[in-house]
């Protein structure tokens, strides 16, 4: 009778020792940033009419008249884009919680790449309207160009830093993950809420200083060291 084959069972730890061991690649997180200036070649301003009256209807007539006059003043300035802003009406309470009056405010938003024209217009509008704020900022195409340049610089800085780390550790690397974020806020020049009391004949152009906005791009991610 032929003998049956015999099987030898190896212990589990012996099988593990005999199998090749693969270690997970080393991942390193890092970031880099770069900034580029963008010329503030676009001006944006908010002007407003504000008043207090006995009834909302009375107020609406006064405010609408002031805003209408403002739009007429702005109409000859073709380089200035005019847009209606928000309108708010709210009660003014006396002691005891009784409404004693109403207050209303309506805004106009002005925008132009011709700062001279907008400056002159604001000087005229201040005869009857208040100026809430003036912002100098890059036009969209100007901002995009500076942002693209900053992205190129930031990625180059990221790669340079990644190479430095990998070379120091004596290993090649590959980029595993990458995230790009850009930012840049233009300064806002706050103005007095009350409209100055002078005639349009005495109005002087509002001074404006364009300056620059720093557009900053941050690149963050992971590199993986190749064994």
Describe the structure concisely.
With 227 residues, the chain is of the alpha+beta class. The protein has helices at residues 12-18, 56-74, 115-125, 140-169; strands spanning 27-39, 42-53, 81-93, 99-112, 130-137, 173-183, 188-190, 212-225.
Describe the 3D structure.
The chain is α+β, with helices and mostly antiparallel strands and 227 residues long. It folds into 2 domains: 26-41 and 139-190 and 211-227, 2-Layer Sandwich (Translation Initiation Factor IF3); 43-137, 2-Layer Sandwich (Alpha-Beta Plaits), CATH 3.30.70. The chain contains 4 helices and 8 strands. The chain has helices spanning 12-18, 56-74, 115-125, 140-169; strands at residues 27-39, 42-53, 81-93, 99-112, 130-137, 173-183, 188-190, 212-225. It has a 5-stranded antiparallel β-sheet. It starts with 11 loop residues before the first helix and ends with a strand. Residues 192-201 have low confidence and may be disordered.
Attribute tags:
three-stranded antiparallel beta sheet, 4 helices, 39% strand, Alpha-Beta Plaits, five-stranded antiparallel beta sheet, alpha+beta, 227 residues, Translation Initiation Factor IF3
């Amino acid at each position: 009778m032929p003998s049956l084959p015999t099987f030898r069972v190896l212990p589990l730890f012996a099988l593990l020792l005999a199998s090749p061991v693969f270690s997970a690649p080393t991942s390193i997180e890092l970031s880099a940033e770069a900034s580029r200036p963008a010329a503030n070649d676009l001006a944006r301003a908010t002007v407003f009419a504000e008043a207090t009256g006995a009834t909302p209807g009375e107020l609406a007539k006064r405010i609408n008249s002031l805003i209408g006059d403002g739009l007429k003043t702005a109409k000859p300035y073709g380089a200035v884009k005019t847009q209606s802003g928000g309108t708010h009406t709210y009660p003014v309470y006396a002691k005891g919680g009784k409404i004693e009056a109403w207050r209303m405010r309506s805004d106009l938003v002005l925008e132009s790449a011709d700062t001279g024209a907008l400056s002159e217009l604001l000087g005229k509008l201040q005869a009857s309207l208040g100026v809430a704020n003036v912002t100098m900022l890059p036009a969209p195409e100007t901002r995009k160009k500076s942002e693209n340049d900053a992205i190129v610089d930031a990625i180059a800085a990221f790669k340079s830093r990644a190479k430095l780390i990998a070379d120091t550790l004596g290993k090649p690397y590959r980029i595993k993950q990458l995230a790009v974020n850009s930012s840049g806020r233009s300064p806002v020049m706050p103005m007095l809420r009350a409209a100055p009391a002078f005639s349009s004949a005495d109005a002087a152009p509002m001074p404006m200083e364009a300056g620059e906005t720093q557009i900053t791009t941050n690149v963050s991610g992971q590199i993986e060291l190749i064994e």
